[in-house]
Amino acid sequence: MNPTLQGYTSAIVEAAVSTGGDALRALANDLESIEQLVLANGPLNAALTDTTMRPAVRRAVMLDLLSGKVSDPARRLAAFACAAVRAPEVPAALGWVATRTRHAAEGMEFNEETLSLMQSRQRVGGYATAIHEDLATSELEELEDSLFRFARIVQSTPELRAALVDRDLAPSARQGLVTQLLEGKVHPSTLLLIRYVVVGGRARDIVGTLDWLVEQTAKARGWRIARVRAAAPIDEVQRGELSNSLTSLAGAPVELQVVIDEALLSGAVIQIGDLQVDASARGRIDALREHLMPGGWDDSGFGTGAGRPRGTTTHTEGAG
Q1: Which of 114, 118, 212, 246 is paired with 288 by a 20 to 30 Å CA distance?
Q2: Residues 273 and 231 in one domain
Q3: Is residue 82 part of a domain?
């Protein structure tokens, strides 16, 4: 099964376990119902296995379909499964998460299998994604800092590093060491994530995995902040509509940071994570300019008959 989905499922199951057996059984029941729905509903099955449908769209379809019908953890997990695998594999992925959760509800132990270095990081990344979804932007920043600091402690403390990478030491013992060191000193989500690194990642890559998670957390924090340059002030209704649209795109609440830039003439430039959308009049003018005269022209002569081609120029709208 997809390593990222393995990690995400582990996080959701662990959270259900922490709230009691009834929650875990309810989660298993919901996931089995979702699996049966997809198998029995031809149009839905066809839509979710359509190779032309992007993963984010499949995820959005499931989130919308299941809203108010199943528990939030079941809805999150099913939607994530739809996006984590290739379209033809969606039914099998839903079956896998339902079975995995049912086994956990029945008290079966589940040990993470040994994977390659990159697959192990992807599995830990899936777990981290579930953690990230529950954190505010400020908490993500705290998580990022804590992961970085702990990575440096492990790196600079040979005895600690030797214990954490010792595969002859039971995973539960290594997790216990992490708990002893960090409990009460870091955010609970940080402790959960580092404990999972011990069992879900490669033992000898613990520092590398922690540093990789620092980068992933920074990216997640970036996707929580939408930097908006607008030609004119945005009222509350517009803010709400934009925030809702970007939340659907990012999969988590998005904080808007709006600055006014009259040079855009109209519209706005939006940057969220590594995605930039230029819906400004200035952006459209520049795009038209590049289309008409790929070499660019000298703005100082525009309208006076003095315009002249220049060397290749790339016109960009920074996000500020």
Answers
A1: 246
A2: yes
A3: yes
List for the chain the helix, strand, coil content (%; round to 5).
65, 5, 25
* Residue ranges making up the domain that contains 235: 223-301
Residue 231 burial (CB count, 10 A): 18
What's the domain count of the chain?
Answer: 3
Estimate the crossing angle of helix 21-40 against helix 72-84, to 10 degrees.
50
pLDDT in tens, 90-143: 999 999 999 999 999 988 877 778 888 899 999 999 999 999 988 888 888 899
For the entire predicted model, the pTM comes to 0.72
Q: Could you tell me whether strands 268-272 and 225-230 are parallel, antiparallel, or unpaired per DSSP bridges? A: antiparallel
CB of 166 within 8 A of CB of 79? no
Phi, psi for residue 52 in degrees, rounded to 5: -85, -10
- Looking up residue 169, the CATH number of its domain turns out to be 1.10.520
Residue 262, classed as helix, strand or coil, is: helix
- Spatial neighbors of 126 by CB under 8 A, at least 6 apart, are 3, 4, 5, 6, 7, 8, 9, 10, 11, 84
Q: CA–CA separation, 151 vs 143, rounded Å?
A: 12
**Using CA atoms, how far apart are residues 206 and 216, in angstroms rounded to an integer?**
15
Inter-residue contact 92 to 48 (CB < 8 Å): no
